[in-house]
Design goal:
This protein is mostly helical. It folds into two domains: 70 residues; 63 residues. The chain contains four helices and no strands. The longest helix is centred in the first third of the chain and has 31 residues. Keywords: Membrane, Transmembrane, Transmembrane helix.
């Protein structure tokens, strides 16, 4: 079992937090630009569309680095939180799809499936840390 010091984990959490905030801001900015500027973005539209995915690659690498330096308990809590998010997505996604087919509109951002998945992940993460504290 590999254990790490709090300093080591903190050094991997900061970049993860920065990548996450950057991704959220870039995603929100891209959505805003596409909704408000529309046709005037033709020259750089592809960049506005692809930029959040490029930032997500850095986010994934930072998350992988965090997990590789975390101890077994932290990894177990993360795994359970990710499982909670996945299960929440499996539950909510068909409801959204069927509701749209029934005529309900979910236009706009954020996607309710993503919101439920993020809330489920964060809730499971907090509950996991509190349970083992």
């Amino acid at each position: 079992m590999t254990t790490t010091t709090n300093r080591s984990l903190t050094s991997t959490r900061k970049p993860l937090l920065l990548w996450t905030i950057s991704w959220l801001l870039i995603l929100a900015g891209s959505q805003y630009l596409l909704n408000t500027q529309g046709d005037s973005l033709q020259a750089i539209e592809w960049l506005v569309i692809i930029l959040p995915s490029l930032i997500a690659i850095g986010l994934a690498k930072s998350y992988w680095n965090y997990l590789s330096q975390a101890d077994e308990l932290a990894r177990a809590i993360e795994l359970k939180a990710l499982a909670a998010a996945l299960i929440a997505g499996f539950i909510v996604w068909p409801v959204k799809v069927l509701a749209e087919q029934a005529g309900w509109s979910f236009d706009g951002w954020p996607n309710p499936v993503v919101v439920v998945m993020v809330i489920s992940y964060l809730s499971a993460l907090v509950l996991g840390w509190r349970a083992y504290r």
